[in-house]
Amino acid sequence: MVKVGLVGFGIMGHMHFENYVRLAAEGVDVQLVAICDIRIEQLKHEKVIGNIATDTDTAVIDLSAYHLYDDLEKMLANEQLDVLDLTLPTDLHAPIACDLLARGYHVFCEKPMAINTSAGQQMLDAAHAHQKQLMIGQCLRFWPAYEYLQEVVTRQTFGEVISATFFRGGATPEGWFVDKERSGGAMLDMHIHDVDMIQWVFGLPDHVSSLARNVVPGSGYDVVSTNYIYPDGKVVNAQVDWTLQGDYGFSMTYRVNFEQGNLVFENDIVQVNPNNGAGYTAELSSDRGYYRQLRYFIECLIQNQPMSQATPESTLRSLQLVEAEMLSADRAGEKVSVAQILV
């Protein structure tokens, strides 16, 4: 039995909570034992709202079956846990994860990996030094629509990629998210999803060129457009904007054009458009990446197998790529060599 302690009970904490409950109900050998948050007494009576709804975001969750703590050390002293699942502000990821890994716990940590690549490298080094599993929640690696894209690219189903665009946007978040020192702004907190997809699906580019703008005082870059420059000449761009207020809601989309067709993902549907045939809708699992990534992580632990998907080494590269984009944005879009950032 893999025993889990959940640290942080905001929107992503609720999302992880629901998926642990589901996994246990499905017979996976995992048990969520305890939940820790400095505001746990308040949060257990609150509804949660986020970009993508949880299954129970319209109701207060019954937490009577779980041990609740407002202090991490108290939880660790009183519980026998195998895994700590961290859904905390980004600046806390590295110091807490490194400490937990050193104390013998496996760690699942929400994205982004850390506030900068130096801190991310410390997490990776700690996992290796103490021989514990570390996984970062880059959930699009397990999201059916993005897995489908990766498969089409890898198999060259429609030939080589000509161009690709990715977009992610919604309303400005509140609290620590708009504190650059805590979240890294939209570029690190939200845009990193598409950055991770680009480097996972297409590999690392040679250069990046980013235009970005700060809108909310103190929050870092809130609106970003990045071009990724590859030696084969394919045109790749990703944009993020978390200043879309009013009734806009939330969107994540991609459009990828190939020599012999194109894929368009929007409104949770992937439309496949061959150049010489009728278009169709891809048949995809209805399960979301949040569930599938946690299932994968837990099953690796149960089977005592090393992870081969979404390794911390690969998610660290996404963090490094974002830092290259930040440097380019600071220089008004100047091209930045990705190889220099990786050194």
TrEMBL record:
Keyword Hydrolase on entry: no
Coiled-coil portions: none
Transmembrane segment boundaries: none
Keyword field: Oxidoreductase
The organism's place on the tree of life at top rank: Bacteria
Pfam families assigned to the protein according to its UniProt record, in alphabetical order: GFO_IDH_MocA, GFO_IDH_MocA_C3
Domain Gfo/Idh/MocA-like oxidoreductase N-terminal: 2-137
Domain GFO/IDH/MocA-like oxidoreductase stretches: 147-263
Key word Oxidoreductase present: yes
Gene3D superfamilies cross-referenced by the UniProt entry: Dihydrodipicolinate Reductase, domain 2, NAD(P)-binding Rossmann-like Domain
Protein name, as recorded: Gfo/Idh/MocA family protein
